[in-house]
Amino acid sequence: MMTIHVDTKNEALSTEAALAHCSAPGHGAADLFIGRVRDLNQGRAVNAVSYDLHPLLCCNVFREICEEARAEWGEALHFWLEHRQGRLAVGDDSVVVAVSSPHRDESFKACRYLVEQMKHRAPIWKQEHYVDGDSAWVQGHALCSHG
Amino acid sequence: MTRKIDVKLYGAFRQYSPNKSVTVSLPAEATVSSLRQAFAEQFDDDNARALLKASAFATDEAVLDEQEPVPSDKPLSILPPVCGG
């Protein structure tokens, strides 16, 4: 069984599939994180977010992050990382991250690592659509270091 | 000898081209830094040029360093600052 699963999706994400993947007889802990579209950002009322992403590079970065976590917290861990693309309404799930491990500490730490690294390194962009009809691309983290 | 290179646009760059890509001409031995210069010349919009300064060029496998040669056989993309989740 592949212990690392990463993907980008045009349809709804499955938390059930994530937890089924992050399961093993020797795993006493599983940690699940769901990122959702919020109705307010920096004082502006939001009614939808459009996610743009680079699918191939995204999956490469997701896999790289999972491998880093596995090197840090153990070969036994199972990882799941999926991100949506397209237009999502408030309350829709944008990202599902899950990790399972023999003991809880590794799952908590590795799951947090996946989420934070994904936000800083994965080629994903979001355009917020506001209740007043305006839209704007959200400012993010630069991937370049050329100064 | 020059070659034409298509650069796919993502995120905030999409607003600057309905084709979702920009084509630039470069010398055969050009570096990513030269690509950045040629790419900048395609835009007369100050916001686009500011966005370019904070953006990275990439293949489908990895982000490219400025001093690397521009790959001749791989699709290229320009990646503005990211914000997943």
From TrEMBL, chain A:
Subunit-structure text: Heterotetramer of 2 MoaD subunits and 2 MoaE subunits. Also stable as homodimer. The enzyme changes between these two forms during catalysis.
Reactions that this protein is recorded to catalyse: 2 [molybdopterin-synthase sulfur-carrier protein]-C-terminal-Gly-aminoethanethioate + cyclic pyranopterin phosphate + H2O = molybdopterin + 2 [molybdopterin-synthase sulfur-carrier protein]-C-terminal Gly-Gly + 2 H(+)
Cited InterPro entries: MoaE_sf, Mopterin_biosynth_MoaE
Involved pathway(s): Cofactor biosynthesis; molybdopterin biosynthesis
Family, similarity comment: Belongs to the MoaE family.
Protein name: Molybdopterin synthase catalytic subunit
Keywords: Molybdenum cofactor biosynthesis, Transferase
Domain of life according to the entry: Bacteria
GO molecular function, one term: molybdopterin synthase activity
Parts of the chain that traverse the membrane: none
EC nos: 2.8.1.12
Keyword Metal-binding: no
Record PANTHER family: MOLYBDOPTERIN SYNTHASE RELATED
UniProtKB/TrEMBL annotation, chain B:
Region named Disordered: 63-85
UniProt-listed Gene3D superfamilies: 3.10.20.30
InterPro entries noted in UniProt: Beta-grasp_dom_sf (IPR012675), Mopterin_synth/thiamin_S_b (IPR016155), ThiS/MoaD-like (IPR003749)
Taxonomic superkingdom: Bacteria
Pfam families attached to this UniProt entry: ThiS (PF02597)
Name of this chain's protein: Molybdopterin converting factor small subunit
Provenance organism: Natronospira proteinivora
